């Protein structure tokens, strides 16, 4: 990840207060990847599970970095040492945000964070100067870096806050202190890190401890829409839009602006583009693909299958890949999906050791096959596809099912 600093002088002023040594070089951007360093970048050396950024400090300086920063010592005079990197980034972010006079919307949840974030941003931008975290930059490092890339004269920041272990949401929400704290949903996801659904719920709800206005849409029903999208959009998208409309109208009300009514909402949505891999429908000649390949957990897969079942006039394919990080009950979660798919799809293709548990002998499937690799699945899929078919592709990111979609674009 790399960001450009829009507020270079402000960032440098805040940054200097943490160090006793002279900092006289410009800082124009920040990167945590030594390979994409640009001249005058600050390189933050992060230590991860599979790599250690400290190993690339010299490379970053050779590539043009002004300074490098980590909690490890280095002899280079342009290396800056901090005792605790995450504590430093938190303090830096809090001080930086003190100069921001606008409102902050913080969004977390097991499903729909990115789509809801993009919808809220899209609806607000017709009245305000709005900035948002890009893509799925929702971690303890990427959220602060995203904030540093924003302008201080913006009126609203819309931030996605992600978590895969206990403490992540508490940490991020204590930094950003949202004016509007939003929970989209609470479901089984990242159970390897959380251990139980109760821990997930507790962690997601921690955003509310730091929020002025609190929205837990896992318990609170959002205001219903004045438009009917049931034939065109999935239940998850509709709920995300209801949440976005609900929060947006509250912000408009707080700013003495009229609420979004039916015709205006429809016109605003005409220019909205779904985030990649979150349920958008792609038309390839006379075949349709529901691209839900970005990620998966049991609740989101079931919602996607409900959406697929609505396409009555199509022959329906369900391509199902492993759902990762589901803990000790991962096999039963996958078996449950196979049972849930019964009657909702005509053809079931599974890929991955876990997804194989979804295989069923049900007579309600015209065909049910398991594959060991994407290539063989693609080969069979292209052999069977005919005009009037629709394919739902759903699985965790690591299954790389988006590659199937790229290949299908070339075939059909």
Please specify the SSE layout and strand pairing.
Layout lengths: L1 E3 L3 H9 L12 E3 L9 E4 L12 H6 L4 E4 L8 E3 L3 H13 L5 E6 L4 H12 L5 E3 L9 H7 L7 E5 L7 H9 L3 E4 L7 H4 L2 H9 L7 E4 L18 H20 L7 H8 L10 E5 L2 E6 L5 H12 L5 E7 L8 H12 L5 E5 L15 E5 L2 H11 L4 E6 L7 H10 L1
Parallel strand pairs: 2-3, 3-4, 4-5, 6-8, 6-9, 7-8, 9-10, 12-16, 13-14, 13-16, 14-15
Antiparallel strand pairs: 1-2, 11-12
Structure described in brief:
The protein is α/β, with parallel strands linked by helices and 412 residues long. The protein contains 14 helices and 16 strands. Strand 3, helix 2 and strand 4 (67-70) form a beta-alpha-beta unit.
Give a description of the structure.
- The chain contains 14 helices and 16 strands.
- It is α/β, with parallel strands linked by helices.
- It has three domains: 2-83, MurE/MurF, N-terminal domain (Udp-n-acetylmuramoylalanyl-d-glutamate--2,6- Diaminopimelate Ligase, Chain: A, domain 1, 3-Layer(aba) Sandwich), CATH 3.40.1390.10; 100-269, Mur-like, catalytic domain (UDP-N-acetylmuramoyl-L-alanine:D-glutamate ligase), CATH 3.40.1190.10; 280-411, Protein-Tyrosine Phosphatase, Chain A, CATH 3.90.190.20.
- The protein has a six-stranded mixed beta sheet, with helices on both faces. A five-stranded mixed beta sheet has the order 1-2-3-4-5.
- Strand 7, helix 5 (142-148) and strand 8 form a beta-alpha-beta unit.
- Helix 4 crosses helix 9, helix 11 packs parallel to helix 12 (330-341) and helix 13 (374-384) runs parallel beside helix 14 (402-411).
